Amino acid sequence: MLDLNDVCVTFYPNTSNERIALDHLSFHIDDGDFISVLGTNGAGKSTLLNAISGTLECDAGEIILDGQDITYAPEYKRARVIGRLFQDPMKGTAPHMTIEENLGLAYSRGKRTTLSKAIKKGDRKFFLEQLASLGLGLEERITTNVGLLSGGQRQALTLLMATIVTPKLLLLDEHTAALDPKTAKQVMDITERMVKEHHITTLMITHNMKQALEYGNKTIILNEGKIVKVLEGEERRQTSVDDLLNMYDFV
Ligand SMILES: Nc1ncnc2c1ncn2[C@@H]1O[C@H](COP(=O)(O)OP(=O)(O)O)[C@@H](O)[C@H]1O
Ligand SMILES: [Mg+2]
């Protein structure tokens, strides 16, 4: 599904500030994998997602998505098939547009049609159903400007926008870290449901070790731009948060 072959990213190369963010990183991700990504600050987690989404170009190596070499594909092209969420609920939605308009934009993504502000009747019905499925009452507020929503509501909406046209890949960069625990759990449960329902291959960065073990089918630990541990299957099931903390001590 996704292959990273020997991917390297270095910031400020050959200067005293040189930072190796991804160090010959290779990894294979299977179709439908939901992988949680752990690692200390500066381990290279966000850089990994930036390299995959095309926000930054790799210095070396290749990235193959679904059989296509996307190593040098521009970000806007990758965005048609890669959904992405960040920690900041303000990113990813247009605050001065309504819920419905935001969904309309997301829904037209990847389609070669001219943008039209008019939302078709059938589309509205579909949007209402999708919003209702979030269980946050947003279906009652489709003409509300997104800027007026709470952080959790915005993340849930961004998640819906990222998946309303099923992406090949979903990249989540600590997307619940800015939310209170109850809301974070709600957004995580919505995430899991969407990922399962549409069978979306997903990479999720988190600092929450419990969350990292609870959701998804694999966990990887990054350190200094390398994957130092892959947890899956029985080994992952037997791993506790304490075990993970001990692994951190090692790296
Ligand atoms: N835009 C950038 N310019 C310079 N250095 C960067 C940039 N982005 C990340 N880095 C450096 O690359 C390393 C990995 O960063 P990052 O991927 O953001 O780590 P993480 O998300 O795991 O906390 C760090 O040393 C960081 O300082
Ligand atoms: Mg980061």
Automatic annotation (TrEMBL):
Pfam families: ABC_tran (PF00005). Residues 2-249 form the ABC transporter domain. It is a peripheral membrane protein. InterPro entries: AAA+_ATPase (IPR003593), ABC_transporter-like_ATP-bd (IPR003439), ABC_transporter-like_CS (IPR017871), ABC_transporter_ATP-bind (IPR050166), P-loop_NTPase (IPR027417). This is Putative ABC transport system ATP-binding protein. It is found in: Cell membrane. GO terms for cellular component: plasma membrane. One of its GO terms (molecular function) is ATP binding. Keywords: ATP-binding, Cell membrane, Membrane, Nucleotide-binding, Transport.
